[in-house]
Amino acid sequence: MSRSPTATRASNAPTFVELFTPKLITVLREGYTFAHFKADVVAGLTVAIVALPLSMAIAIASGVGPDRGLYTAIVGGFLVSLLGGSRFQIGGPAGAFIVLVATTVSTQGVDGLILATLLSGVLLLLIGFLQLGTFIKYIPYPVTVGFSAGIAVIIFSSQIKDLFGLTLSGPEPGPIFEKLAALADALPTFNLAAFMLAAATIVVIIGLREYRPRLPGLLIAVTLAALATFALDLPVETIGTKFGGIPQSLPAPRLPDMSFEKVIAVLPAAVSFALLGSIESLLSAVVADSMTGRRHRSNCELVAQGAANIGSALFGGFCVTGTIARTATNVRSGAHGPVAGILHSLFLLLFILIAAPLASYIPLAALAGVLATVAWNMVEKHAVATLLRASRGDAVVLAATFLLTVFRDLIEGIVVGFTLSALLFLHRMAQSVEVENAALTPHIPSDTSDTDERDPLLPYDAAEASDPDVVVSRISGAFFFGAAATVATTLDQIARQPKAYVIDFSAVPFLDSTAAATIEGFVRKAHARGAIISITGARPGVRRTLLLHGVRHPLVHFKANVRDAVNDAHAAIRSRPAAPAAT
């Protein structure tokens, strides 16, 4: 007995266990050898070297201490690799969260930030288990490019103070115009030593990336800056002078204050963390897939991100997400699987346990130089130029997302960019729907095969058509609400009132309720005039929608193809009694 297509699809659907099995389990089942372990050790150490200065720099830029950035990378990164749905994802603090985290700290304090991180983890668990992660793939390319460029501008603007060694008279404002005004007022406090350190850091990073790309440029640049600060006793701010260094151990896990009032106060921030984290982490996983040819499990990845954020919050860290630059570094370093990400976290833990006192000598100007290069690399220059040239619509989406991200809000930029993209898509789809009308002669070639359903529409020529009583209208394209008005106008503008209409749906893959209601209205008007209406080539889904909206017998006849419909229409016209002669 043959199985229906529906039953086949259902049997091929992955089970719950398959959907949420971590990639670590998959890799171990495939056979994990010592050679794989050596590759993961090298990759994990390489990523840890990159993550060390970045984690501290992002934490400082976010308004918290560098230790919290390391806690986030250690605990969050460990759980992302342990439970995640991507072989190569590296979790930790990300530059995209700098503004959101800084705003939350300024309004709710560090305890509020930790609580918001915990709640965002719960939300991410729900998003993952409800299998909503697959919808993230619908974020359009111009939105992601504009968003990344906007984040890059925000990150760079947040580092201007330390790049130039400026001293502000009060807290640094969040909005970019107010920030730039405050920085301009602080220009008299310019610190040449800090500026030279930042510039040297940027030069070393760029130079090593160009000429010695295999060397850990970020760590080398920061180490040289720290050595110069110590040896020359430079008058610049360091992690030691600003934060008193970093602890030499992880803190004991504890729950933040979870009073009802506090939960309500931080809930908007938690929602923002969850939405941005899901987008950022799945984009990072997609990048890893494109580099390796592998496929990640999106919902499993979101569940891991949720667990990572909960774990990070318990140990005093903040938002965790998949990080594109560190994940790409992991892939390029030859990682075999999630063990590399786990080892990256353990290497960072070893740094805290063994070498934490050395971090006190790291100048903030050097970390600002690190983030300045990160910001520059986040801007996809070629993609921006291509989208600006591609079409006016894509350029508008890109510009709107970028400007709103920089000057308004990150989530607002994504939502508005997505909405504009959706409207642009609907407009383009509506324009792609076409209606061709033609009058056919009653003669059907006798040598046409019965199985040949290709009935080309002939352009109507009143001088050549021997029988204009049958009009065939062929609709092509996805027939939905955006195209309904155009199709209705085209059908209504048929100059004649023929005795029969044939509407061909063979080129319509999809039809929504608005389109079906449009056809129902046209059919009723034509039927009221006594015309015969046939619909041909309708797919099962299209036919079902038409039937549900009243397009059914006796108003309309469903036929297999245009030829049969035209023949039947001519036969029905001939069988009608002639109109009585006028007296």
TrEMBL record:
Write out the entry's keywords from A to Z. Answer: Membrane, Transmembrane, Transmembrane helix
Keyword field contains Transmembrane helix: yes
State the PROSITE patterns in the record.
Answer: STAS (PS50801)
| Pfam families (alphabetical) | STAS, Sulfate_transp
Which regions span the lipid bilayer?
41-62, 69-90, 110-132, 139-160, 180-208, 215-232, 263-288, 346-376, 396-426
- Name where it's found: Membrane
Q: Which residue range or ranges hold the STAS domain?
A: 460-569
Membrane topology field: Multi-pass membrane protein
Q: Which PANTHER family match?
A: SULFATE TRANSPORTER
Report the protein name in the record: SulP family sulfate permease
What is the originating organism of this protein?
A: Pseudochelatococcus lubricantis
